[in-house]
Specification:
single chain, 175 residues, mainly beta, Pnp Oxidase, Chain A, 7-stranded antiparallel β-sheet, globular, binds flavin mononucleotide
Length: 175
C-alpha cells in the first residue's frame, strides 16, 4: 500500500511553487458530476453555465448548493432570478458541457430543451433535473454560493452520468 503523503498546511504547500495550483490539483482528486444551471435573465433570455460545484445539502427542507465565480457575466442574473434549474448531464453530453462552459452567446440554439417552471429551460437527455427557488446566497471567497430549494424534480435512471475528475471527463465503470 502506498503511504499517504505528509499533510501540510496550505501556507506551506510548496513555498517555491504555486500553492493555488497545488490546491486546485488536490481538490481535483474529488470526482464530481457535471451540471448545467439554467435560468432566464432580466430580459427573459435563456442563460446557462456548466458547473461541477453542485451538491446536496438537505432533504427536509430540500436544499441543494452550487457556486458561481464572482467574475461571471451571469452573476447579476443569478442574484435576481426567483427560480432556476439544475440539469445533471449524462455521459453522452460532454459537448453540452463544453458548450455551456464557453462564452458563446446563444448556446440554447444548439441543444434540445423545453421550458419548465417560469419558462426556465430544461435540457433534453439529462440524468435528472431540479427546478429550484433561489432560496439563499452566501459569499465564499472568490465564489458566491447559491442555495436552491427544490420545487420540482425528475430523474431518468437510464443514462450514465457524466463525471469530472482530475480536470477531465471520465466514464463510470460498472461494478
Ligand atoms: C466541468 C466544468 C465545471 C465547472 N464548474 C464551475 C463551477 O462550479 N462554477 C463556476 O462558476 N464555473 C464553473 N465552470 C466554468 C463555467 O462553466 C464557465 O466557463 C464560466 O462561467 C465562463 O465565464 P462566464 O460565466 O462569465 O461566461 C466549470 C467549467 C467546466 C468545464
Amino acid at each position: 500500500m502506498t503511504e499517504n503523503p505528509e499533510p501540510f498546511p496550505f501556507e506551506q504547500a510548496d513555498p517555491t511553487g504555486d500553492a493555488e495550483r497545488d490546491l486546485r490539483t488536490a481538490l481535483g482528486r474529488f470526482p464530481t458530476g457535471v451540471a448545467v444551471v439554467t435560468a432566464l435573465d432580466a430580459d427573459g433570455l435563456a442563460i446557462g453555465l456548466t458547473v461541477s460545484s453542485f451538491n446536496t445539502v438537505s432533504l427536509a427542507p430540500p436544499l441543494v448548493v452550487w457556486s458561481l465565480q464572482l467574475t461571471s457575466r451571469h452573476l447579476d442574473s443569478f442574484d435576481t432570478t426567483a427560480t432556476y434549474a439544475i440539469n445533471i448531464l449524462s455521459a453522452t453530453q460532454e459537448e453540452v458541457s463544453n458548450l455551456f462552459a464557453s462564452s458563446l452567446d446563444r448556446p440554447f440554439d444548439q441543444v434540445g430543451w423545453a421550458p419548465g417552471l417560469s419558462g426556465v429551460p430544461l435540457l433534453e437527455g439529462c440524468c435528472a433535473w431540479f427546478e429550484v427557488d433561489n432560496h439563499q446566497q452566501l459569499d465564499g471567497g472568490d465564489h458566491r454560493l447559491y442555495l436552491g430549494k427544490v420545487r420540482r424534480f425528475a430523474a431518468d435512471p437510464s443514462p450514465v452520468p457524466l463525471v469530472f475528475h482530475d480536470g477531465d471527463y471520465r466514464v463510470l465503470r460498472d461494478r
